[in-house]
Design goal:
440 residues, mainly alpha, Methane Monooxygenase Hydroxylase, Chain G, domain 1, 3-stranded antiparallel sheet, 3 strands, elongated, disordered N terminus, disordered C terminus
Length: 440
């Protein structure tokens, strides 16, 4: 029991002596975070050094790890302290040892930055290019769409008609006013707007104009482009490329140590990257010129109007237009369904009236005469039966034509009432759709 206790004390002393021997001179929080990074990286200091010198030819350093490594570049204060204790290298804690060995690499920070830029370059170009292309394409679409031009002419005509008098002779309108169409509501139905009515008119009179949506395929993407941010991204690429070129010039002038592949790898990268960047830069210049033309074409101030605002107006209008189209279609279907149901109910009422009249008179219901078609007139001799049927249906008696009484006549589809005599009744006290004044 005593021996075991002594053995444990000896082990504790050994562990304690190890803790005492471990040397750490850098900030505690910084050392802790650095230790976490190294444990995630799972590479020895020698392997990290080799990856940096060879510009990571074996892809050992992922982009996110490189980004973290840049946060733990040895600072001058760290280097000075570590240099003072370099004779105690074996006693150094893992983070201290890592920072010391990385500080021994010539231009460690610049190499790390160049490697990170190289790895991120293709990704950044891929993010910028679609924005530039969308800006260019959308500007062309806005400028050259004949359907859009004719649509705006119709909108202007609507505006002039609604603003008769002093404000009704406009030659144009601000692009920002375009979406006010969806805010102008019907005085009869608040769910119906001027946009719904505009679509109805276009469908009837100018169906080709509805294809303007197909002409503006790139507008939605262009509406997401912020020119300030885009130019900032281009500027960052330009400055990053220049920094890498400067480091390349520096490394070319100094002797290359064994295993150092910076000059060969970066020289090849610069040749390809410079061409890609020049291509994107030229495309942006062209896109900006096209955008300037588009903005001026619509009478706007290009210095105040950004792409996301300008194309955002058209994108919002396209969305509202599509929604209103769908709502019009839903209204149309609902109306057709109501008419179908009303027709069925009317037919059922007529059949019930026939059956009731037949039961009351004890006469069998009317049937077609053998050998006659549905379009032929059938003489009906059961005057009482038919008279009761007509009265039940609210159609009056068919046996009092001008000039005297006679036998009734039944045509398929209507009882005792001609189409001509029915027309005034359907219009009595009502307005047709064309007679309504929809808007204020």
């Amino acid at each position: 029991m005593i021996n075991n206790s002594k053995q444990k004390e000896a082990e504790d002393d050994t562990l304690g002596s190890k803790k005492v021997r471990e040397l750490s001179v850098i900030d505690g929080r910084r050392a802790q975070n650095c230790n976490i990074l190294l444990s995630r990286l799972k590479l020895s200091n020698e392997e990290i050094k080799r990856a940096i010198l060879t510009m990571d030819e074996h892809e050992d350093l992922p982009k996110d790890m490189l980004e973290q490594l840049l946060k733990f570049v040895p600072e001058k204060s760290d280097v000075d302290l570590l240099e003072e204790h370099k004779h105690d290298l074996d006693r150094m804690a893992k983070p201290d040892r890592f920072l010391y060995e990385m500080s021994r690499i010539n231009h460690y920070q610049q190499r790390l930055q160049a490697l990170y830029f190289k790895k991120k370059f293709a990704e950044r170009i891929a993010e910028i290019k679609p924005k530039v292309e969308a800006l260019s394409k959308a500007s062309k679409e806005i400028l050259h769409s004949r359907n859009l031009k004719q649509l705006l002419e119709v909108v202007l005509a609507f505006g002039n008609y609604m603003n008769k008098g002093q404000r009704g002779n406009a030659y144009g309108f601000k692009v920002s006013s375009l979406n006010k169409i969806a805010d102008t509501k019907s005085s009869i139905d608040k769910n119906i707007t001027l946009l719904h009515y505009l679509i109805t008119i276009l469908e009837k009179k100018y169906p080709k104009v509805l294809k303007f949506q197909d002409d503006l395929q790139s507008v939605s993407e262009a509406a997401k482009v912020n020119m300030t941010e885009l130019e900032k991204d281009i500027g960052n690429l330009r400055s990053g490329l220049k920094s890498v070129e400067s480091e390349l010039d520096f490394q070319k002038k100094r002797p290359q140590e064994l295993g150092d592949k910076f000059v060969s790898v970066v020289s090849q990268f610069i040749a390809v990257a410079s061409f890609s960047f020049s291509d994107v830069e030229d495309s942006l210049t062209e896109a900006k010129e096209l955008f300037l033309r588009a903005v001026k074409h619509f009478g706007e101030d290009a210095s105040k109007m950004q792409p996301d605002e300008f194309f955002g107006i058209f994108d919002q209008f396209l969305q509202s237009f599509t929604e209103a189209q769908q709502e019009n279609e839903n209204i149309r279907k609902r109306k057709e369904e109501e008419e179908r149901r009303a027709k069925m109910e009317a037919q059922e009422s007529i059949e019930v009236a026939r059956a009731s009249a037949s039961d009351a008179s004890g006469t069998p219901p009317l049937v077609g005469v053998p050998g006659t078609s549905h379009q032929e007139e059938v003489q009906v001799t059961a005057q009482d039966t038919l008279e009761g049927l007509c009265l039940s249906a609210g159609l009056g008696t068919p046996w009092a034509p001008p000039g005297g009484a006679g036998r009734g006549v039944w045509r398929e589809g209507r009882l005792g009432v001609s189409a001509e005599s029915a027309a005034p009744a359907t219009r009595s006290g009502k307005k047709t759709e064309d007679e309504y004044e929809y808007f204020h």
